[in-house]
Design a protein that fits this description.
This protein is an alpha/beta fold. The chain has helices at about 10-20, 40-50, 60-70, 85-90, 95-115, 145-165, 200-205, 235-250, 270-280, 305-310, 315-330; strands at about 1-5, 25-30, 55, 75-80, 120-125, 170-175, 180, 215, 230, 230-235, 255-260, 265, 285-290. The strands form four sheets. Strands 3-2-1-4-5-6-11 form a seven-stranded parallel beta sheet, sandwiched between helices. A two-stranded parallel sheet has the order 7-10. Strands 8-13 form a two-stranded parallel ribbon. Helix 1 packs parallel to helix 2. The protein binds nicotinamide-adenine-dinucleotide and uridine-5'-diphosphate (UDP).
């Protein structure tokens, strides 16, 4: 298949490009580099030995999208492009509704105008809010608790309604749990701007000496060791989940939603220990107050993806830590 990958220079998009190329698909990246660098494309070419077409553009720009759809005959789109910082979404919600919701609406309209009928969308476990129980399955009600989560739930609705109205359209909505890790080459990985919001890139920056210590946000949760528990999934497993979803789209039109997680939860301190093993260093940490809006624990029920997509996460937290460390230690300043 020839696949347009919006946000393909970003963390998950870049790893997914490699998974697509490994399965013989062709990719065209569309990215405005607001949260990534063109160097990513060079690294992808180095790893894959394949030239990668890339168009610099914004998903909110109708005419830029029309141009790229006119220049290529796409079979499908994987839509990663968007903004993802929960705190920033609370401070600047209109920016998030514009890029995440309007950008997705415009992209869907342009896809239909060019008779491209398959889309895989990056949703998030954040749409569930505080779940009534764990593990979380796809039938749970959605209670997003911040503007970022609302934008993901809204785009899911837009795609579901559009697939119902245009029966040729197939949409797969993938709810990611906590992506972590990097490609085993150590050439690409997560490269956050400024202070990392997420646990794994923060630990990696402490390990490489860029930050003094990890702040552990609360150790008084009702969990195994008092720290927050999440379902960390290796980014290459996540990437391969997209390829499985694309292949399912061609077999089954309509809209479909899947959790992409491992089904296992790990605490902050367990992740820290896994990282210490991988890098062979002690990583200093200080326990601080809980972070506003955090939930004690959640993990996925990934059974539906396994049954219907034939996909299951294979890599464990030791591999996530080892691959993150290889990327971070080889590229202390990122790309
Ligand atoms: P990322 O920021 O690394 O990648 C997003 C890419 O999209 C970047 O390359 C950025 O430059 C590009 N982009 C942003 N706005 C754009 C626009 N208007 N037009 C074109 N390109 C634009 O993020 P990521 O971690 O790779 O996440 C990818 C997707 O997955 C996002 O939609 C995110 O919300 C979703 N997601 C991420 C996580 C996570 O923890 N990383 C979890 C759940 C869902
Ligand atoms: N966390 C932490 N210190 C940090 C970043 C995160 O203790 O610097 C904790 C956070 O409270 C949560 C877990 O690590 O329990 C995962 O947080 P992250 O922001 O990576 O993902 P989230 O699940 O919030 O999307």
């Amino acid at each position: 298949m020839k696949v347009l990958v919006t946000g393909g220079a970003g963390y998950i998009g870049s790893h997914t490009c490699l998974a697509l190329l490994a399965q013989g698909h062709e990719v065209v990246v569309f990215d405005n580099f607001s949260n990534s660098k063109p160097e990513v494309l060079r690294r992808l070419e180095q790893i894959s030995g394949t030239a990668i077409a890339c168009v610099e553009g914004d998903v909110c720009d109708h005419s830029a999208l029309h141009q790229v759809f006119s220049a290529h005959n796409f079979d499908a789109v994987i839509h990663f492009a968007g903004l993802k910082a929960v705190g920033e979404s609370t401070a600047n919600p209109l920016k998030y509704y514009e890029v995440n919701v309007c950008g997705s609406r415009i992209l869907t309209e342009v896809m239909l105008a060019h008779q491209v009928h398959c889309v895989v969308f990056s949703s998030s476990a954040t749409v569930y809010g505080t779940p009534k129980s764990v593990p979380i399955n796809e039938s749970f009600a959605l209670y997003p608790a911040n503007p970022y989560g609302h934008t993901k739930a809204m785009v899911e609705t837009i795609l579901r309604d559009t697939a119902a109205a245009h029966t040729a359209l197939s949409a797969v909505l993938l709810r990611y749990f906590n992506p972590a890790g990097a490609h085993p080459s150590g050439l690409i990985g997560e490269d956050p701007k400024g202070i990392p919001n997420n646990l794994m890139p923060f630990i990696a920056q402490v390990a490489v000496g860029k930050r003094e210590h990890l702040a552990v946000f609360g150790d008084d949760y009702p969990t195994c060791d008092g720290t927050g528990v999440r379902d960390y999934i290796h980014v290459m497993d996540l990437a391969e989940g997209h390829v499985a979803a694309l292949e399912q789209l061609s077999r089954q039109p309509g809209s479909h939603v899947y959790n992409l997680g491992t089904g296992c939860g790990y605490s902050v301190l367990q992740m820290l220990q896994a990282f210490e093993k991988a890098c062979g260093k002690t990583i200093p940490y200080q326990v601080q107050a809980r972070r506003d809006g955090d939930i004690a624990e959640y993990w996925a029920d990934p059974g539906k993806a396994e049954r219907e997509l034939g996909w299951r996460a294979e890599r464990d937290v030791a591999q996530m830590a080892a691959d993150t460390w290889r990327w971070q230690s080889n590229n202390p300043e990122g790309f």
